[in-house]
Amino acid sequence: MLNRNYTLNEICVAPMQDLTTFRTVLDPSVVSFLGLYHDIEGHLESVINALARPPSVTSLRVNTLLCSSDSLLKDLSDVLSPYKVERHQSKDHCLWRMDIQKLPWTLSDPFTPQQPGVLAAVSGIQAEDKVSVYIDVDQQVHKGLRVEFEGRKVFVGNGTTTMSRSAFYKSTGVAVRMTEGIYRSPPLNGIFPEKCYLQNIPSMITAHYLEAREGDRIIDMCASPGGKTSHIAQLMRNNGTIFSFDRNENKVEVIRQLCQRLAITCVRAFAMDSTKLLEGEEQQKWREEFDIRPESFDRILLDPPCSGLGQRPRMRESMNLVDLFSYAPYQRKLFHTAIRLLKVGGVLVYSTCTLNPQENEEVVRYALDHFPVKLVGGPQHLSSLGSKGLTWRVKSEGEIEEIMKSTRDEHIPAPHGSQKKRKQKQVKIVMSESLKEEEAELVRRFDPSKDDGIGFFIAKFVKIADMR
Ligand SMILES: C[S@@+](CC[C@H](N)C(=O)[O-])C[C@H]1O[C@@H](n2cnc3c(N)ncnc32)[C@H](O)[C@@H]1O
Hints:
The chain is of the alpha/beta class. The protein contains 13 helices and 21 strands. Keywords: Methyltransferase, RNA-binding, S-adenosyl-L-methionine, Transferase.
C-alpha cells in the first residue's frame, strides 16, 4: 500500500525505460552506522532495498466491537474484487494480497503528476508519448530542465503524456496518465470506515502483546493518531479505562475522532507531555481528578517517537547520524515516567518502527539495567511472527567516530535553493551493551527484508518491585 504522496515538484519525466531496481537513499553516515550491527552477509543491503518498496499486502484491522472478521471479509471481498482479501493468522486482521501478475494496473496511481508538478522533461515530448516518471530524490532539479537529469533519481513507473512538453508548464490537469506503477493497491479510502482501520501488522501485534483485560486501567503514553489505543480498547471490549496522551490538542483531537468513528467509549484522551505526567504543582488537581498516581496502572504502552527507519516505502531519508542519535535519550526519558506509573506486576510494552538498535535493543538493555523490570515474551499464538532481537553491539566509540569522520562531507545534499546547510555536528556517543542471547529471544524484531512488512520492534516487560 502506498501511503505517501510526493510533493509534485519532486517529479521529472524522461523517455520510457524498463522497470529497474532501486534502493532507499539514506545518509551515508546512517548506512555505515547501521552496517556496524546489520552488515552480516550483505543483510543491510537487502533491508535497504526492501525499504524502497511497499509490503506486498495491505492490512486492515477489523473493528471487532462492531462486526466480525467473517462478515467484514465477505463485504470487502464483494467491494474490492478482483483484489484478494484474506484473513491473517491472528484473529482480527484482514489482508489484501496484491498479485503483481494477474491484476490490472491501478490507474488512480498516486504518482500521477498533476501539472504544474512536472519539474523537468526532455525536449520534444508530445501528447500520447510513452514516458517514465522519476522522483528527484535530492531535489536538485531546476524547473524547466530540457535534458535528462543526471543526478540521483528514483523510477516510480511508466505512463502516457496527455499534453506536449510546453503545455506541462502552462496547463492544469493530469500531465502523465500512469499505466504501470511500481506500487498498486486497492482503493481503500472511505470503505466501511467504522468497521475497519488501516494498520500495519506489527502495530496490531503490539496491542496484542499488552494482553489487556476488561476493567484494566491503561496508559498509552504517545497515542496519536490512536491506532494502538483504539485496538487496545477493542481487545478489552471497551470495558476499562485507557488514558491516551499526546503532545498537543490537535493530535489528541485525532484520537478522539478515531474513537468516535469506531464506537470506542473507554478512552480518555488528553494533551499532555508524558515525560511530565507526574510533575508540576499546576497539574496536581488534574492528577487527583483522574487518579494518575505512581505505581497505579495495570498496563502501559510506550510507542514513542522514533527515527522511523522501518517505514516503507521510502524513497529518501535525509536524517544524519546526529538526528538518529537524538531519539534514544528521549525514549529513555519516557520509559522512566512510564515505569513509575506502572503497578508492581503490571505490564509495559515498548515498540518502535525503526531498525536502529540504539532505539530498540539498547533501550531494552537500559531499562533492564536501571529499573525493576524483567523481560517476558508475547502471547504464545503470536510467537512465530518476527524474529529475535540483535545481540550484536558496536565495539567501541571509535567505530562511530570513524564513521562521523569519514562521512562528514558525504551527507545527502540540501534541496536546491534551500538555505539549510546540513552539517554533521559532533555527537555525544553513549555506548550501551546489547542484549544477552536469552533476552534477545524474548523481544521481537520485524525485518522488512524477511517479514514482508515494515521494520518494527516490540519488547514486553513486567514490573517486579516498586520504585518508592
Ligand atoms: C510513534 S507515534 C505514536 C503512534 C500511536 N501509538 C499509534 O499507534 O497510532 C509517537 C507520538 O508521540 C507523540 N509524542 C512525542 N513526545 C511526546 C510526549 N512527550 N508526550 C506525549 N506524546 C508525545 C508524538 O506527537 C507522536 O504522535
